[in-house]
Recover the amino acids of this structure.
RNA sequence: GGAGAGGUGGCUGAGUGGCCGAAAGCACCGCCUUGCUAAGGCGGCAUGGGGUUAACACUCCAUCGAGGGUUCAAAUCCCUCCCUCUCCGCCA
């Protein structure tokens, strides 16, 4: 959420932000509502002051004069009541409208309409040249007997997967490796709840707007998380932290649930887009400082990159363009890992910085050394998401004989296996 | 699921209708004192919004889990909801 003061003073910047993000928002309506509300508040405050003054004076009166004095306050109260109702009628729509305004993207964010316009920043590693016909990850996994999407579909419908044997160990191993990797980087592991209330969804800016993507448990008014970002960024919601405690660096592993509404017919095959997956997520909460945020952004990007390097996977980093950027982000770097079956890089990581956009919604603040209270800055990035990461892992490391060689760093996490072979 | 207790400032915690935005302690900040010291003294210190100011300051409004209500007046009384704790039941 943007600061209403900022919107007042930077109307054109907000409009430009919306245009760059290819969003349609009504900034003028927000400002009109705000103007109305402020004018009302001045009158309301004055009348309330008057009422408070009168009420206080009644307390000092002798008992026999109170009833008459109280009488005089009553019509003032009636006026107040009308204004209070007006205020309520303005507050709701104003907040709702304010929640829809986009965060202002960094000047570094390239212009563009879709992910096709994202700008490549760097490439690391070279895609392997295969001297045999390659298989896609579905084929590899099925032949090895570690993946079964058919049975998964019978049990749970489309966009589901099941892993068996070494496939199962492989997934667990990668996730655990990612956790250890992040602990080494100084992050605190957290196990967050997987079901959350509306407020964390709104606070992290998934709601309003993303309701269709979330599984809701109607009986309990709880939502299954689509990412651990939601509960983890919300850990300190409503708190005023001490500057000395910052930065907070968390890493969380969780299942993630996404309805993928509107994605019909897109990536229907394989493990790319599914309803339930695992993700290790890194979250940083720190002071309200742009430069510091940018540094953290590079750091969490680097954390993910180093993991990919340990997994010996070629990848590239893109600077996500305006049209592909979400409402809350200031800037986003995606990491795309080489996926041989696609003959292209595919998104596996997403590193975002938000400034105080989420923090303002979450009431996530800190007291600075100067004694002033400010909203924090928040950031997050994937460390690894599975099974999507299995796509490049299986495909890049596949061998002519159908086996898959595991990168050395991963082996201790997969029961010491050097290679995945078909077992029975 | 049943019964009970409670939610107050960064923290602990007092406050059952006007003198309370709120005692006291801790933490923190400033100044002073002191050099034997995990010390002492004085002062400051909730958040948001508005007015005013060059600024310091001053002032008004709201907020004591959330939302309604009673009253001239609510942290304090009533209702609903949320959360925490204790006991019982059930269960992993």
């Amino acid at each position: 959420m943007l600061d209403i003061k900022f919107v007042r003073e930077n109307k054109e910047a907000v409009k430009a932000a919306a245009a760059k993000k290819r969003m349609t928002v009504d900034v003028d309506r927000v400002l009109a509502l705000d103007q109305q509300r402020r004018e009302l508040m001045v009158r309301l405050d004055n009348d309330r002051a008057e009422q408070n003054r009168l009420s206080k004076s009644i307390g000092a009166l002798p008992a026999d004069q109170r009833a008459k004095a109280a009488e005089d306050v009553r019509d003032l109260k009636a006026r107040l009541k009308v204004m209070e109702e007006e205020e309520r009628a303005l507050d709701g729509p104003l907040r709702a409208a304010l929640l829809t305004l986009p965060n202002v993207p960094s000047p570094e964010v390239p212009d563009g309409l879709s992910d096709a316009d994202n700008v490549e920043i760097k490439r690391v590693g070279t895609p392997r040249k295969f001297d045999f016909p390659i298989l896609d990850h579905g084929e590899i996994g099925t032949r090895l007997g570690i993946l079964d999407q058919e049975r998964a579909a019978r049990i749970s419908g489309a966009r589901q997967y099941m892993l068996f044997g070494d496939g199962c160990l492989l997934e667990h191993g990668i996730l655990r490796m990612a956790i250890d990797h992040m602990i080494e980087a100084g992050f605190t592991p957290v196990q967050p709840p997987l079901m959350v209330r509306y407020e964390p969804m709104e606070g992290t800016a998934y709601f309003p707007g993303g309701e269709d993507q979330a599984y809701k448990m109607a009986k309990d008014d709880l939502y299954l998380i689509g990412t651990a970002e939601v509960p983890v960024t919300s850990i300190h919601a409503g708190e005023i932290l001490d500057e000395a405690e910052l930065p907070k660096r968390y890493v969380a592993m969780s299942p993630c649930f996404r309805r993928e509404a509107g994605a019909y017919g897109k990536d229907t095959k394989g493990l790319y887009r599914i309803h339930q997956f695992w993700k290790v997520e890194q979250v940083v909460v720190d002071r309200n400082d742009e430069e510091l945020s940018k540094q953290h952004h590079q750091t969490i990007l680097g954390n993910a990159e180093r993991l990919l390097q340990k997994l010996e996977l070629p990848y590239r980093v893109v600077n996500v363009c305006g049209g592909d950027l979400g409402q809350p982000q200031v800037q986003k770097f995606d990491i795309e890992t080489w996926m041989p079956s696609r003959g292209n890089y595919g998104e596996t990581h997403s590193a975002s910085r938000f400034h105080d956009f989420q923090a303002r919604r979450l009431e996530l603040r800190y007291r600075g050394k100067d004694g002033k209270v400010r909203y924090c800055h928040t950031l997050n990035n994937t460390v690894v998401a599975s099974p999507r990461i299995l796509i490049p892992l299986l495909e890049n490391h596949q061998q002519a004989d159908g086996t898959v060689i595991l990168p050395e760093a991963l082996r201790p996490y997969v029961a010491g296996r050097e290679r995945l072979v078909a077992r029975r």
